[in-house]
Amino acid sequence: MKRKYYDDYDYEEAYQKQCDTLEEWELERLMKEGKVECLYRTTTTKSENIKSGTTLLEAQVYPSFKDKKDMPVTAKKRETRPSQKNLNDKNARRYLIRLANINFGKGDIWATFGWDDGHYPENMDAAQRDVRNFIKRINYRRKKAGLENIKYIYIIAADGNTRPHFHILMTGDGVDRDELEELWGKCERPNTRRIKPDDNFIITGLATYISNNPHGTKRWCPSKNLKKPDPPKRSYSKFKKSRVERMARDYETLKTQMEKAYPGYKFLDAEVKYNGINAAFYIYARMVRN
pLDDT tens digits, residue range 151-163? Predict the structure, then answer.
C-alpha cells in the first residue's frame, strides 16, 4: 500500500525566514535538532515563450510530512486557483507573470492609459467597460486589415487617492503606437512602449512591476486566446533530504545540484528559507534554457 504524505499547506507562509541570515553553526544546529520525519517534494513549472522559445523554469522544493500533525498549519492550502480579481494574492501574481512570459516578447507592446477630467469613469465597472470597448476598436481595425485579434493582459489600478489607470500587455504585430494612442483618446499622456525581453528572465521584470502596482485592489483580465502554462510536474525523488540540506548550507552546491537535476538549463537565482520549529527548508529556484 502506497504511503500517504502530507504537504497541502502554503509553504511560502510556513517558511519565511531567510537562510542567508543564519551562521554556519546555526544551520548545523537546525539540521541536528530536526524533530520530524519528512521527505522533500519538488514542483517544477516551465514557461516557454512562444516567440523566442526561451524557457523559464521554476523549481520549488518543500517538505512533505509522514504525519499530518507535523504539517505546518497555514491560512491557505498549497495552491489556490489564480483569481482574476485581486493581485494581492501571490498565486495570481505568479500566474500572471507566467502568462506574460509565455505569450509576449520582442516587439509586443506594454502601455499605460488613464482618464482625464473630461472622461473620468464613474466607477470600476465603467472603467472596465471603457477598456473592453478600446480592445474591441483595436480588433475591429485588425479584422479589416486581415489580422487576428490581439492577445492581451490588462490590469486596472485605482484607489481613493490616485486616478484610475490601466496597464496592458498586448500583441505588437501590426500595431502602430500612434494609432493605438489615438484609439484610446481618453487622456493626453498615454505611455506606450515596445517590449525588449531580458535574455534570461524574458519579461519577468516588467510583468512583476505591473502586477505589483500599489494603487489599491487590482483587477486583471487576460484574453481568451492566450497560451496557458502547462500543469506543474511534481516529484518525491528529485532531491533527497540529505541533498536538500547540503543545498541549504551552500549556494554553490545549490547551483550545481539544480543544473544537474535539470540538464540543459542554466541556474539564475534561488532563495532558501527555513522553519525553526520543524527544522526544514524551502527552496525556490529559477533557471533558463535559451
Answer: 999 998 876 667 8
Measure CA 226 to chain center: 15
Around 259, how many Cα atoms within 13 Å sit in the side-chain half-sphere? 12
Residue among 124, 131, 93 at smallest CA distance from 223: 131
Residue whose C-alpha cell is 543544473: 259
Pick from 102, 98, 288: which is nearest to 199 by CA?
288
pTM comes to: 0.90
Phi, psi of 177 (to 5 degrees): -65, -40
What length is written for the chain? 290
Per DSSP, the residues of 79-97 read --PPPSS-TTSHHHHHHHH
Query: Which class is domain 107-194?
Result: alpha beta
Of all helices (H) and strands (E), which one includes residue 236?
A: none
Q: Backbone phi, then psi, for 230, in 5-degree steps?
A: -70, 150
Ranges of each domain in the chain: 11-79+234-289, 107-194
Q: What are the φ/ψ torsions at residue 107 (nearest 5 degrees)?
A: 90, -15
**What phi and psi, each to the nearest 5 degrees, are found at residue 133?**
-65, -35
